[in-house]
Amino acid sequence: MQNINSAVRMEKTFDVMAFCGDSQGSLDEYEFNANYMPKEEQYSFYAVCGNCDYACDYPAEVDFECEGYKIYMTHGHMPHLRVKYSYDGIIKEALRRKSDIVFFGHTHIPVVIQDKRTGILLINPGSLTYPRGQISSGSYAVLDIEMGKEPKAIIKYL
Hints:
Largest sheet: 5 strands, mixed
Distance between the termini: 13 Å
Shape: globular
Low-confidence stretches: none
Strand content: 25-35%
Helix content: 10-25%
Radius of gyration: 15 Å
Number of helices: 3
Strand order of the largest sheet: 3-4-5-7-6
Order of helices and strands: HEHEEEHEEEEE
Mean pLDDT: 84
């Protein structure tokens, strides 16, 4: 929890927290904004269950809207998605759901890509605690969305 606490403190204010799975524990404190936000600044919280979340009651997939954009969120480990091998499955699912943006996890490798064929923005925040690939510090993504403007996503590191 130390790394997620650090990321929350680094960002100070935000409207939505989206967690892409593999918490291996409860994130209830974030669901209720208990530690950080006064009532007038509370944020929306969305979470999905990852393949390492054995006692998790979060859903496998979530759809929500933000500033007019449809967002699809999943961990990415399910057989029809298989993000370890390609983004074809997750793009196909996003198209089926009519989503503009996809949040996913599973690989623990941070990625921000806009699919050239579909225009769908794919965002994997990496992992705050267990980074993989050539990344040695925890990472998370920040998505700046404003209605009528192009969404901008960046990866940040602890």
